[in-house]
Amino acid sequence: MRKLIVAGNWKMNTSVAEGVELAKKVSEYTVSKNLPAQKQVVIAPPFTHLAPIAQVINADKVILAAQDCAATTNGAYTGEVSASMLKGLGVKAVILGHSERRQYFKENSEILLKKIKLALAEGLDIIFCIGETKEQREAGANLYNNVIKAQLVDTVFTLTPEEFKKVIIAYEPVWAIGTGLTATPEQAQDIHAMIRKAIADNFGQAVADDTTILYGGSCKPSNAAEIFAKKDVDGGLIGGASLKADDFAKLIDAR
Ligand code: PEP
Question: Is 173 in the pocket of ligand 1 (CB under 6 A)?
């Protein structure tokens, strides 16, 4: 059975002290809910916060994720953080392909595939983000469906089915990230169904049925339940609303 996940991407926000407090609250809330194993909560704080947060969360209940990892294993790469370093801190998953990494750091499919392979080699789960820009959306369904498919074909579709089992897809329309604009539940469902079909065509129906596909883009307590209720939406990757413990708790409840 595929996992239902609510994941918080904190981006470059909070001081270490604030982050530790937030993580504690998320952990306490998640523990109090006694969620079934199928339902998971993930937090992705900044790199600097991972070690102290690993000490305060219940790691059986909250999955600690990083927001990125290096495309190389080790060596003279100033400022980079490798997948094995993250693993050593108790990190279990890594977000890769976020639109902000693609846009501001020029990460393309070639770079992302290197990161994916290195993260998988460390046994990390991958939350792989894909999605179309506003211009691509406005150019029509033919174009944006092809854009989204190409983001998969060039990267995670080259993995073995066994490797792909470690991949969670996050559909994040770029026009909805941090903008206050949200895909309608129907728009999200259409794309999620298209993605699941593409996975089935590439890996077979059983793999597609087991793949978690998250929606991300201005998800908040007021709109999440409706989106998460859709058949192919298995939860959310949450930016802004993951920074407030109360809002994130409501999003956990919405799934
Ligand atoms: C994100 O950055 O992954 C995201 C979904 O952000 P927001 O919820 O703030 O739109």
Answer: no
Task: Reply yes or no on whether 192 is catalytic.
Answer: no
Dihedral (C-alpha) 219, 116, 93, 144: value to the nearest 10 degrees? 10
Helix (H, G, I), strand (E, B) or coil at 130: strand
- At the topology level of CATH, where does 4-254 sit? TIM Barrel (3.20.20)
Q: Is 137 helix (H, G, I), strand (E, B) or coil?
A: helix
Closest CA to 216 of 23, 2, 6, 1: 6
The answer to whether residue 107 is catalytic is no
> For 176-219, how does the pLDDT look when each residue is reduced to its tens digit (9 = 90+)?
998 989 999 999 999 999 999 999 999 999 999 999 999 999 99
Which of 101, 94, 90 is closest to 125 using CA atoms?
94
Domain ranges in the chain? Answer: 4-254
Ligand 1 near 239 CB (within 6 A): yes
In the structure encoding, which two tokens stand for residue 173, read together? Answer: 């329309």
